[in-house]
Design a protein that fits this description.
single chain, mainly alpha, 66% helix
Amino acid sequence: MAFSYDIPEIPFLLTVASFIFILNVAEELAKILLKAGLLGSIVVGIVYGPEAANIIPLSGQETFLVLGYIGLLLIVFEAGLTTDMTLLHRNIYLSMTAALTGIVLPIGLSMLLLTVGYKYSALQGFTAGAALCSTSLGTTLSLLGPELKQTRTGVIILSAALFDDIVGLVIASVIGEISSNSGRVGWASIVRPILVSAAFIMVTYIAARLLVLIPGLPRLQGRRTQLFLVVFTLAGYVAGAKYAGTSELLGAYLAETLLAHVFTCEEASTTHVQDIDATKSEIQIQYTPQPRIVTPISVFTSQMEPLLATLLSPLFFASIGAALPMSSLGSVEGSHRVVWRGIIYSLLMFVAKAAVGLTILVWPDPNRSRGWFGRRRVRLDDGADDDTVSLKLLTSWQSVLLLGVAMVARGEIALIVAQLGQPLLEGSNAEAFAVVNWAILLNTAGGALGVGLLLCKQM
């Protein structure tokens, strides 16, 4: 049957146009008032979504969900552009410790509160903790500026969130199989994502080392050529990661990591560290400007970032808001105790993730010859000259707060695990599912707001 070209009805056109326009307005207002623009998009998604006004038809919601997920992939892809791989390598064990802390604490505290305090089943407690042990990679990355992503704290946040995503994929597979009729958990559901992720990382590392040896390849400077390579590599990595059995977000991150390494031109800029005395309030870094060279970074900035900032990223956060089951948050089976139970559980989950920040406090920093409980300061000051960037220093406790609060937002992975585990959460007590969604909503909003305010105070 052939597709017929029908002119959309005026009400539908106006609805979609108003949705896109109000998304950008709400994001700007939230950015000004709350220092976290994504909260505006989440609120608009809730209002337009099926749980509130239900303004957008189902077909439109599905389309926006796809476009929004493309936005998430591009957000993660952009992170690969600005990640300092040397810092990532040097802090890999700290990142793994932070990620594991953020997984174990939510699951353990969830089982303790929900089984002992709320009298839910142990399986419901585990499922709830499994949903709340994830970190919203999209939310975290959208709030961190390019400069902050190149600092030690930023790299730890990024790598820990990525590890959480891989673990979230494993947990989602386990929860999905437990929720099925068989209730069996195959070894492949646990081992395959981990092995495939390790293989993807190793292959990318080897490919990055080999590709720079090909004569002329790192010198491909045409804008169209670079754009083709960016799109081709991103699409290939995302599809390969998904079909191989690991996270497509990891694929998106590795794709740009590969491109950034292969097409990094040493002549682009020369950096001289003038002073790294920890007792001073600033570190002066000199950049020697060079002629503009077309790289994956410049192509992404000019060709993709405007679309990402104005359409795809707001649609992603709006789709999170639309997916929240708001109607069940007020009462379950005529009882309103779900409200205070949900708020208490949300606070506990906030503390469980925020405790991740303590890992950076107790971990030594060998790069600066600092031992345990040493001071580490980060962050770039925007008010710098063209040739000099002034690096304001954060104390160790400020770094602790930033890392802890940045890991709080749950978002997309938590929603996926909660929806897969809905049959388990609603098994003996339907209230458990609503309590979990309370925690997802409040922690995503609270984490985004907290990071925005922390960064604002340091500007």
